[in-house]
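Sequence in, structure out.
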Amino acid sequence: QHRGQPPTQPADPDPGQAVPDETFDTVVVGAGVTGLTTALALVRAGRSVLVVEARHPGAVTTGRTTGKVSALQGTTLSSLTSQHGSGGRRRLEAYVESSLAALDWVAAFCEETGVPAQRRDAVTYAAAPEEVPTVRDEHEAAASLGLDVAWRGTPDLPVPAHAATVLADQLQLDPVALVLALLDQVRAGGGRLLTGRRVQRLRQRGEVVHVLGEDGLDVRGEHVVLATGTPVVDRRLHFARLTPQRSYLVAYRHPAPPEVMALSAGSPGRSWRGGEVDGSGLLLVGGEGHETGRGRRESTRVDRLRSWTAEHFPDAVELAAWSA
């Protein structure tokens, strides 16, 4: 049911890499965007860094996203506001401030390293009339936290939309291109990468942390950063509070891809944006998220995305489909 892979993939890991017999200032576990950005900050601060990755850089979450970099994230802000109330306002403001700082950092890094990136409006929209109050709540939450959002009662979108909140000047990019540029900069700063080694546990011995795993993996660091989807250290019982999620993406060629990055507010959600691949227009359509192992078959979920795309973007020609 899944034809092909994401348009870009890094090279497979080399299983013959030797495990370094030295102690690093910091060992970073995970070579996604979080781990490699952390590693880059550390090598730029003059620290010795080893990144350990179970698969290859950008595997799993990072390499399979839509590549949207935005402070408007669906209905996240209204959900957080509802959870934390007025007492958590400073934390919400810090969340927005850090999101904007991250956006600026990524934009500057892309310009510095030549990673292609485009500025786009980010849109959260109501695909049905009953979703309008949800979008209104997100708009008001975003505005109250300092984001320069604009309300659109009759949004000009190529899909049915009854209202939208829009945040201009956000960013879209190829996440794998970003990962490879981060890796180049980490290596240029003296950082090292060990791939194909899965970390299973940590062990403190005096002032040194041993990072242990498969195939005799034992690397040492004065500090360790876990930049993985699920932490391997269960001191705070994270495993009991995490729920695995899966969603789906289909990539298409399209003669006139949309100029916005959009996300619907309801369920089932639809995430879509335009772009370019090999000099041709690209359309990415995602959604059908669910708890892993529950609900409809994967093939059924991907077919629902295909049917939705055929209805609203009839000129789209499928390139590949995958899950995230």
